[in-house]
Amino acid sequence: MVKTSTYTLQVQEGHLFTITLVANPSTGYQWDLSNPVDARFLSLHANHFVPPSSPARIGQEGHQVMSFQALRRGMTSISVKYCRPWDNGECGEFVFYVVTIV
C-alpha cells in the first residue's frame, strides 16, 4: 500500500517558501512534482537534496528541499511523488499540499 499524506499551507503573496521531505537517493527514489504547479499562483524556484550533517554514512537519509515562489493571492495545490524514475509509475509515497496564498 502506498503512503499518502495531505497538508495545508498558508503563505504570503510574493514570498518564497519551502517544503522539506525525508529522502534517500541511494535507494533510487527521489521527490518530484506529480503535476505541474499552477503558474498563475506558484513557480518552482529550486529542488535539491540536502545530505545529513556529518559524519554522513553511505545510505543515510537526508532531506529534499523544494522552494516555491507565491505569485498571487488565491488557493492552489502542490502534489509530489517519491518514485524511482525508471519504475513506470511505481511510487513509494505521495504528498498533497493545499496552499492558500494571502
How many E strands?
Answer: 7
Q: pLDDT below 50 for ≥5 consecutive residues: which ranges?
A: none
Rounded average pLDDT: 92
Query: What fold name stands as the CATH topology?
Result: Immunoglobulin-like
Q: State the shape.
A: globular
Q: What count of domains describes the coordinates?
A: 1
Tell me which CATH architecture applies here.
Sandwich
* Radius of gyration of CA atoms, rounded to a whole number: 14 Å
**CATH top level class name:** Mainly Beta
Pfam family, one: Inhibitor_I42
Protein name: Proteinase inhibitor I42 chagasin domain-containing protein
InterPro entries: Chagasin-like_sf, Cys_protease_inhibitor_I42, Prot_inh_I42_chagasin
Domain Proteinase inhibitor I42 chagasin: 11-96
Provide an overview of this structure.
- The chain is mostly beta strands.
- The chain has a single domain (3-101), classed as Immunoglobulin-like (Sandwich), CATH 2.60.40.
- It contains no helices and seven strands.
- The strands form two sheets. It has a four-stranded mixed sheet with strand order 1-7-6-3, with no helix packed on it.
- β6 and β7 form a beta hairpin.
Please sum up the structure shown:
With about 100 residues, this protein is an all-beta fold. Helix content is about 0%, strand content about 60%. A hairpin with a 7-residue loop joins strand 6 and strand 7.
Keywords:
102 residues; mainly beta; Immunoglobulin-like; four-stranded mixed sheet; three-stranded antiparallel sheet; 7 strands; 0% helix; protease inhibitor; thiol protease inhibitor; cysteine-type endopeptidase inhibitor activity; Chagasin-like_sf
